[in-house]
């Protein structure tokens, strides 16, 4: 049995649709909510960590000048 180009394109389209559906279901699942919330808030944690580091470095530099 040979497969023509139209049938192949249809199967590929179904595969892509199935993958899209799986990704959407996975991303909206309740199991992933915690991980996604943590990733979304990580940008704010990095800013706070950088600010703390900058404060520590400036205090160390001021102590060296004394």
Describe this structure in words.
The protein is mostly helical. 88% of the residues lie in helices and 0% in strands. The N and C termini lie far apart (87 Å).
Question: Quick summary of this structure?
Answer:
The chain is an all-alpha fold. The protein has helices at about 5-25, 30-65. The protein is elongated.
Task: Quickly list its features.
mainly alpha; 66 residues; single chain
Mean pLDDT, nearest integer? 82
**Proportion of beta-strand residues:** under 5%
Q: From the helix content, strand content and strand pairing, which structural class follows?
A: mainly alpha
Distance between the termini: 87 Å
The gross shape turns out to be: elongated
Q: Kindly state the number of beta strands.
A: 0
User: How many independent structural domains?
Assistant: 1
Query: What is the overall number of helices?
Result: 2
Largest sheet data: none
Using the CA coordinates, give the radius of gyration: 26 Å
Helix content: over 70%
The H/E string reads HH
Which blocks of ≥5 consecutive residues have pLDDT under 50?
A: none
């Amino acid at each position: 049995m040979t497969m023509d180009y139209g049938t192949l394109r249809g199967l590929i389209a179904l595969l892509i649709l199935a993958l899209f559906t799986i990704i959407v279901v996975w991303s909206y699942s309740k199991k992933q909510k915690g991980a996604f919330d943590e990733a979304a808030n990580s940008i704010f944690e990095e800013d706070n960590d950088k600010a703390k580091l900058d404060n520590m470095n400036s205090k160390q530099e001021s102590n060296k000048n004394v």
